[in-house]
Design goal:
Distance between the termini: 58 Å
Helix content: 55-70%
Shape: elongated
Number of domains: 1
Order of helices and strands: HHHHHH
Largest sheet: none
Number of helices: 6
Length: 101
Amino acid sequence: MTPTRPTRTAGRLVGLAVAVLPAPQRARYARELYAELYGMTSLQQLRHAGGLLLHAFALRSALVATTHSEETALTTTTKPLRCRLGIHRWDERENPETHER
């Protein structure tokens, strides 16, 4: 068998798997998981889509478990101290496109 585009059945299985995911991530995962089916044979597509359907609730729980505190801990909302004090360290580098400073 030659690799083909996703079959209708495999596409519907992916749609069912994505339906249980949280709404904000649903569209992204639908595109990503559907794209994984390209290049597979029909049997591989069905097997892969079935596996996605079996693990959809595990993915949902992983997506729901991420808290906003973990995400905000990685971002800074204030300016660095040197910037607030007006003490900046300039780094002069050569532009690789124009070879100027």
